[in-house]
Input
Amino acid sequence: MGNQIELRHLKYFLAVAEDLHFRKAAERLYISQPGLSRQIKQMEDDLGVQLFERNNRKVGLTPVGLYLKQELSMVVKNLDEVLQHAKLMEEGKEGSVTLGYVGSAMQNIIPELLIKFREIHPTIRFSLNEMNNTGQVKALLNKEIDVGFVRLNQVPEDLALRPVLNDTFTLVLPASHPLSAYNFESLHQLEGEEFILFEKAYSPVYYERVMSLFEYAGFSPKVSHYTVHANTIFRLVENRFGVSIIPTSLKEGYAMNVKFIELQDIPIRAVLSVVWNKKNRNPTLQKILELL
Output
């Protein structure tokens, strides 16, 4: 790379590479369009490569431009994170960490983690994002979040996975349902009921665990509704559209006209795991993992 290439050139290039439109990129960067064009031309001259294919109708990336966009996106993002962390350190704030999580992790694991972590590191900033498993994996690979809480048993090789909770399953029934913890004997007692379940796409691994509960009981469920929201499940059960099965930790925090029966005697468990990018150099991440 030539001596004349500066960080601003990289950011200018990435802006045009993302928008594929010089005017839009210039407006986003708060510089003039001719000025932006000159900076990109200077970068191309210094590198001795052509980054964009230009004509009157459109702007496109050359193969070299596409390669640089993919590589420089991560480089610039990492640099921005380093500079942001340095600023937080200067302000007396040790750093920040961004968490992704599936809904059930917010019922106990994450609140307990944050409370204990705050006692040790009171100035760390947290950003919380509820996301499905697939979204968390993608965000971790792109370094958009630092750590995730997922229901998966396999992740890409750049990520690390560690179980943190083996949760029992719990039945969710309308409050007036004749079954209760006192007369419940087997899941088979609900063979004639319609079930409301989390969508398979939300977490294929979790879905297969739930299906194995029915295999264990010796029948296939009749499913009336699929959803990705616990609140929707509870509302549907409350209004007698069916019954459901959830991780036991998910039952906390909902005040609805339903009742729960924990399936303690069934050995199948809903596993919640923490996942992170092995290449993530955020120093706060290691503190989180140590506490977990």
Observations:
- Residues 7-89 form a domain with the Arc Repressor Mutant, subunit A fold (CATH 1.10.10.10).
